[in-house]
Amino acid sequence: MNKKFIPLFLLAGSTLLTACNEQKTTSSAAAPVAVAKEDAVAVVNGTYISKESLTKLENEIAQRKQGQSFPKEKLLEELIQRELLVQEAVQKQLDKTAEYTKQLDTVKSTLLTQAAVQNFLKSSPVTDADLEAEYNKNVAASGNEYKARHILLKSEDVAKQIITELSAGADFAELAKAKSTGPSGPQGGDLGWFAAGQMVAPFSEAVIALEDNKFTLEPVQTQFGYHVILREGSRSQTPPPFESIKEQIRPMLQRQKLQEFLTGLRTKAKVEILLPKPATPAPAAVVPSETTDAATKAVAETIESATEDAKSAVADTVEKADKEVANKIDALTK
User: Fold this and answer.
1) CA distances from 281 to 153, 185, 278, 284 (A)
2) Residue 283 gets which letter from DSSP?
3) Are 152 and 233 in contact (CB under 8 A)?
4) Which distant-in-sequence residues (6+ apart) come within 8 Å of 299 by Cβ?
5) Which DSSP string corresponds to 206-263?
6) Are 214 and 231 in contact (CB under 8 A)?
């Protein structure tokens, strides 16, 4: 099969776009990076293309093709064609257009966001002491697991009425289906198995104090309302060794540290919201089991994989083009 070289320059993602920016001279507004002739693989109208830029492009394609090599001369031709287009764009002053400026501002903001996150994580690393403290608090100390149901009510009086009905022999699951205001109501209030630390304190304390197959004789108040709780079972659990899971704990603590950092920045900043506040209905009550590791989940949901998001933010701005690069590479190697 006769393989034609298909230029990739119009399709390059963020990694590829930066690969040929190390030049001896440049016609763009950005300050050039000096490249000596002995460190170059080609010169295009006086602009040197560095060996490093070619290596970066090789590595990018090798990663996409799972180690498969690609002819250097074709990759070099790719870099040359890109440079020609860059020079053409600058000559036509396309780098002065409003559209270009707007996109450049977006990329700069993304890069600065990424730099700030990486700088914080580097300057405030999670230590082994941090990991061990978290392990001792939420893993090693978990001890027992409990299985429970609950009926969540809005008022203490209604909760007491439920307890009266249960004492008279009413079925707990059926009452939960009929009366509970929590999301677990349709499942008979079933919360499944959980460690005590996964629940809000008043709820977990009440569960621990109960015997198996016993329900609370007084309503348990939390920020979600009034609970009637049935403990259905308990079992001991052996926590995994610290060394085997400490690296699983690290990302969570990194997210916590980053969230605290962001919260501090927000608190110190002078921020004025100019958008009108939308009318929103009152939030529904939340089942305690759904607040498992509430602080951790809140962090994860608000800045989930913050470091990875920051690292990939630039690539996201050219996602469509990046995918087409892979398709073109596939075509070239067939």
Assistant:
1) 19, 21, 10, 9
2) P
3) no
4) 252, 255, 256, 258, 259
5) HHHHSPTTEE-SS-EEETTEEEEEEEEEEEE--PPPHHHHHHHHHHHHHHHHHHHHHH
6) yes
Q: Residue 164: what residue type?
A: T
Length of the chain: 334
Name the nearest CA neighbour of 42 among 9, 75, 17, 76.
Answer: 76
Cα distances (Å, whole numbers) of residue 149 to 143, 179, 196, 201, 223: 20, 13, 14, 16, 18
Hey, what amino acid is at 32?
P
Structural domains present in the chain: 9-98+313-333 (no CATH), 127-268+285-303 (3.10.50.40)
Q: Model-level pTM greater than 0.70?
A: no
Give me the half-sphere count of Cα atoms (radius 13 Å) on the Cβ side of residue 38. Answer: 0
Q: Are 192 and 288 in contact (CB under 8 A)?
A: no
Rounded to 10 deg, the angle between the 98-123 and 242-268 helix axes is 130
Q: What is the pLDDT of residues 52-108, one digit of tens each?
A: 999 999 888 888 877 777 788 999 999 999 999 999 999 999 999 999 999 999 999
Tokens, residue 114: 């990424």
How is residue 2 written in tokens? 């006769």
- State the Cα torsion 97-100-104-107 to the nearest 10°: 160
Answer yes or no: is pLDDT of 141 > 80.
no
CA distance 138 to 247: 15
Q: For residue 44, give Cα distances in angstroms to 40, 73, 82, 185, 313.
A: 11, 15, 10, 71, 31
